[in-house]
Task: structure prediction
Amino acid sequence: MIKRPRRIRGNEHIRRMVRETRMDKSSLIYPLFVIDGENIEEEIPTMPGQFRYSVDRLPYELERLSKAGVSNLMLFGIPAVKDAVGSQAYAEDGIVQRALREGKKQFPDLYYITDVCMCEYTSHGHCGVLCGHDVENDQTLELLSKTALSHVQAGADMVAPSDMMDGRVLAIRNKLDENGFKETPIMSYAVKYASAFYGPFRDAAGSAPAFGDRKSYQMDPHNRKEGLKEALLDVEEGADIIMVKPALSYLDIISDVSREINLPVAAYSVSGEYAMAKAAAKLGYMEEDRVICEMAVSTYRAGAEIYLTYFAKELAKFMDEGRIG
Result:
């Protein structure tokens, strides 16, 4: 035999030399929940190892992230008071706004991204203004753009709209530009499916809809071509990074998007993926560390260049140890 593929698998040195998919800690983003109140660091029951932090406790977690070498984070806010129009989302003293100011003061070298949506802030749990039982798209755009602007004014380095309203990237881009923030990038949740994998997040953020579901604005998991259409629309509207969510069950979509657009592609390994890995490992069904690594590798291999994951600290450690990367 002349052709022996095993020749380049013989030891760790050559396996790493010829590795096709490479990862770096700088591509990791850690999702982080901040909650109104004081002295709160409460574990999320459906996401063991993940916590909700009040602003006064947030710096302790930021220090842990910094020491782990994870420099990028995405903030999700959980307000004490919710109303029909989600007014705490864009309030100057809102939970995310206060968290940004505190984080920037104590850890200015970290990179702060904020989730821009209404579901955590509305009393009905939907992602925008209601007209009857339907989310009114165009009225919601104004609130989303106000929210994005308030985040940037409080110190956000990047905003990430996750609501799936039509036209929201352009509305936010225009609002930021009009107010002197032309250099602030937008990472769009462009391809966001109506997924069962979001269950633990809705527990973490208290954002489950009070009635109905989000299928009229999030995407049908059966559809592949529609994902590329959504991505291309957001590129036209001025998005700087395109996200696919969830990651693990939508690797084909990540691959499609990464081939067809000329922007960085992010993928969000969502709460359900995290919870499944944790539960299976607890029961002894799988090796947690290897599963974490394999989930990440599959996402990068599909074409993602940025990985949002609740396992960011673990992956950073594994990269330092040479077990992945």
Q: What stands out?
A: DSSP finds eleven helices and twelve strands in the chain. The CA atoms of residues 100 and 155 lie 6 Å apart. The two ends are 32 Å apart (CA to CA). The chain has a mean pLDDT of 93.
